[in-house]
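Progress narrative, work stream C.
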Amino acid sequence: MSSLLDPTVYDLITDEDKLLAKKFLQVELNIMNKNITSYTATTSNSYSSSSSADSSKMKNSTTTNRLRNFRQKCGMTDESIIQTTITTKQLTLKQELAQLDALDKDGHTFTSFWRKYSFSLPILSRMACRFGPIPATSVPSESAFSVAGYIARKTRSSLSAKNLKYSMFLKDKL
């Protein structure tokens, strides 16, 4: 999964693995969309069933006015927001995957690639944030605990937390 979204490894995986990862992405997207739909339905039902509908309308209009004033102070007008919303077209997952195939991935790390293309590939960007940072093994964390146990042993019990932190950092970098 994460190898499909990683530009450094993308060309190394087989077409069969790419196909499986794309199917998995589609399933995950469907699950995410169901969760969002059920959340908005629950939220809208709770607002419609409340007895203080007038006060919530008043609170929403106050919030809207505050947001409008904030955008004006930042130099953003409501018309520019509407135009950018209209001009940007939502792509499907298949279209984003096709764009991902066509993009040049050379010279990019995982982070730099998704920073650059997060707005043009929003669905895949969300998936990259979700699945990308998952480490393949727990070796780095186990190693850190092992080093901490060695540095903070009984004979060095007078070591302060600050000095332990600095010692851990130096041990890791040396």
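Work stream C, second folded protein:
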Amino acid sequence: MRAGRRDVTITHPGKELFPGGITKADLAGYYRDVAPAMLPHVHDRPISMQRFNAGIERPGFFQKDLPRGAPDWVRRVSVPKKGGTVCHVLANEPATLVWLANQNCITPHASTARADRLDRPDRIVWDLDPSGEDEFPLVRRTALELGELLRESGCEPFAMVTGSRGVHVVVAIRRRYGYEQVRDAALAVAEALAARRPGDLTTAFRKVKREGRLFLDVNRNGWAMTAVPAYAVRPRPRAPVATPLRWDELEDHTLRPDRWDLRGALARLERDGDPWAGIARSAGSLPRAA
């Protein structure tokens, strides 16, 4: 498969990765075609691979280390860990996204920091992940209220349906702050929002303490943590895609977190462009509410 300036071999292209006939070749073709929009959101960010060698109907696994036999042209970075380092892929060109698909990597998860300054994240992520499918109206309402709070705090919020059950609200920040500062700021904003609606929202990590409330998850903001990036495919039936939104789309009562699949996401991009195209230019300070 030609991807950018390289040819990438797809082994077993007819392997069905999703029920209904979506194959490895279909996945690789999607990542080739979505690369112009997706690469700005993953460039130079260490990638953790969520792989499904037998398709999504069998258990998958996460892999951080670069797989053996990776081509020399695949960019990589060594990330410190306790007792050593981990060599992560950097998805910096279309061919790398296609090569990852050939590794049965359905979802590449990306760091909130870039490789040249691994200790200075440039994104804050609030993950609004409900416990059930019927709670999405609460997720939409909460995302809108979180956006209002963030604007009051001097930040520009961006929203994305995750392709799974929820919404990510994301803010770009300048690379001035360490992970602890960023996570503390994210938690302070989440606690301020939960205090407005304690019967609906919680920041409690343990499920037993949530008591049916929507969890405002800020744990994507820690060292070595990752988040689903824009335009990543999710390992669910129909191959839904994590799709960036225009902010006003959160007001759409027909919105679903898995509305766009491989073909739908590409058609939307061709028609409307990338709603997150300006996210990097919006980078500022930590939210004042923190």
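DSSP finds five helices and 16 strands in the chain. No further action is required on this item.
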